[in-house]
Amino acid sequence: MSDRIIIKAGREKSLRRRHPWIFSGAIAKVQGKPNLGATVDVYTESGEWLAVAAYSPHSQIRARVWSFTPGRHINREFFADRIIAAQRLREAEVCPHTNAYRVVAGESDGLPGITIDRYDNILVCQLLSAGAAYWEETIYDVLEELFPGSFIYERSDVDVRSKEGLKKVQGPRRGTMHVEPVTIHENGVQLTVDVMTGHKTGYYLDQRDARHKIQQYAKGKTVLNCFSYTGGFGIYAALAGAHRVVNVDISESALDLARHNESLNPIRPGVIEYLQADVFEQLRTFVEEGETFDVIVLDPPKFVDSKASLNRACRGYKDINRLAASLLNPDGILMTFSCSGLLSSELFQKVVADGCLDAKVDLKIIDRTQQAPDHPVHVHYPEGWYLKGLVLKR
């Protein structure tokens, strides 16, 4: 008999709705001795088969479903089928505009815990679940076959791996790559990505559409790009004809790469300025100095790591939005974002509104943004939708 987990009576409802997570509290018992990441069948207490999943004995998410299809074997063919389907979706939606996109978005592509980003001929993988790590060699073999000539690099260097009983790992897995960062293009813009030391897998591919959107507001304007990282929003704004762009980031190395990105694009010298500073402190300095801007971008890193940190994160979001609203010229545009999945869009809007209230500035929402289409959200997995943005006008 195969290893299996038995779901408590009444706790199988989410599985019947095809949600891929099984929490420890929903499990009545485990039959057999499945290893970390091993494949298990999932049954009700009455003996009805529900799914096939990857077992994770150390995590509160005790199992992640690979498939709800009876008889579906988890093997090389399974991973090839899922990755091919994911790539076909991107070919239709994204590939005509860029050579850098998310190939696999975890649960939303039926591959829990697996993220694969493509930067030209480089594939960067994050394997964040026990099941993903269990099948890592198979995954790399499939990628090597489906994307011949690509260099495959792993960036599973994030804290969440510890919750799965896994160590952080990073390094080359297949192929040969030059040491230099790779240059990508999106919407006609050239950008350099450092896949080895950059944030996430190297770049924020999910903000591609929002970066493009800033161009409709930037011509002839002064633009403040906060948490600028390697300068994406600022490059787009300058190419659209912004009069002045100020990139602010705490990382000097990120700003150095932003300067390099500027050199790759036809931008008039002197348009972009670079400030190495803590954004919270710099915004206060701008307020004290009476500085103002026509367009302000707030694209901070994730403030919410857990439900326990939600209140503290809301205070942070409120503070930066209050300060930004104070710096906005009449008829100005504020583009403000949150990539914290635990922060709902409703709460984010409330926090922004509270910040505007404290700043005594009235803003109107004229548009909303979300993650680019290569970061799809499966209809049965709402947690896949995490990035939300508001475009507000004074």
Automatic annotation (TrEMBL):
SUPFAM superfamilies attached to this UniProt entry: PUA domain-like, S-adenosyl-L-methionine-dependent methyltransferases
SMART domains: PUA
Pfam families: Methyltrans_SAM (PF10672), PUA_3 (PF17785)
Gene Ontology annotations for the cellular component aspect, listed alphabetically: cytoplasm
GO molecular function: methyltransferase activity; RNA binding
Main location: cytoplasm
Keywords on record: Cytoplasm, Methyltransferase, RNA-binding, rRNA processing, S-adenosyl-L-methionine, Transferase
A Gene Ontology biological process term: rRNA processing
UniProt xrefs under PROSITE patterns: PUA
Protein name: 23S rRNA (Cytosine(1962)-C(5))-methyltransferase RlmI
TM regions (residue ranges): none
Family designation: Belongs to the methyltransferase superfamily. RlmI family.
Residue stretches making up the PUA domain: 3-88
Compartments where located: Cytoplasm
